Amino acid sequence: MAAEDDTCRPYAGGVTPTGTAHGARTHPVIDLHAHSTVSDGTETPAELVAAAAAAGVDVLAITDHDTVAGWDEAAEAARVQGVTLVRGIEISCAWRHSSIHLLGYLTDADDGPLALELERARESRSTRLERMVALMAADGIPLGYDEVLAQVGPGATPGRPHIADALIANGTISHRDEAFESWLGNDSPYYVGHYAPDPVRAVELVRSAGGVPVIAHPFTRTRTGVLDDALIERMRDAGLVGLEAYHRDHGPEEVARATALAGRLGLLLTGASDYHGAGKRNRLAENTTAPEVFEALEAASSGVTEVLRSETSSP
Ligand code: AMP
Ligand code: FE
Ligand code: FE
Ligand code: ZN
Hints:
Layout: E1 30-31, H1 45-54, E2 59-65, H2 71-81, E3 84-95, E4 98-105, H3 112-138, H4 145-149, H5 160-169, H6 176-184, H7 199-208, E5 212-215, H8 229-237, E6 242-246, H9 252-265, E7 268-271, H10 291-299
Parallel strand pairs: 1-2, 2-3, 5-6, 6-7
Antiparallel strand pairs: 3-4, 4-5
Helix pairs in contact: 1-2, 5-6, 7-8
The protein binds adenosine monophosphate (AMP), fe (iii) ion (FE) (2 copies) and zinc ion.
Residues 35, 40, 65, 276 line the site of one fe (iii) ion (FE).
């Protein structure tokens, strides 16, 4: 792949991997983190791919929480829309009472140990939401578990955003943010955790499934102090490939920390939107990954699950 290619569209905007303005430069727009209704996004996998095409994204990764259930629909849509597709997942990992998110690109969907772990997490997520709703209802928050289930798409990974969506549907609030500020935050008395692998094990699972592990938004404010350098070093030793440095939840300090750490540990730096449709304010392509980093990520995969290249998008 040529880094400079006349057929590429210019970056759609936002922070570039170098943090510099890019004006009329032509590069493929590479957004490696986005959600669909198969987890807590608000657009179906096909709608997500169409939205990416409309936003000028050349390479999109679909990375639903703890599931590959959106891959086939996204692949078909990518072919139709002329978008290059990276099939991925975002694994929730448990570490010291906090949640760390690990992106796994191009894993083998048929890998037994990884599939089993994801299934275990999804099952535990269901019972956990039911417990959260019971705690909230006991405190007078008007909500039934059936209303929450009505918000979870068929075969989708249930999560706290579906509780928020049920509260929007019954008129209690108007945006997911309000629910997270009031009742759904990590420090809320209604918060209940769910089964999740530890981050080092998750890296091992992604690697042994032929995939490429990258820590999602490693220094998000709610995680400060949790994801220490020593843990990232252990994850690197287990096969971690990159850090998602350029993300809405990171300011200049977090980017600087990620850059220093990546230099010391030999990790790649990626950028992505973490788009959730109407569920979050993140916009497609607001952060992007450099073409040479994308090339290195692909080269680090086993090749069992390939990047699906469209004929009309360049990379
Ligand atoms: P869970 O995986 O069920 O613990 O829920 C965490 C998910 O909630 C994350 O993946 C985020 O996408 C979403 N989330 C967290 N904070 C907010 C917020 N303020 N507004 C909308 N979604 C949020
Ligand atoms: Fe999410
Ligand atoms: Fe995340
Ligand atoms: Zn995400």
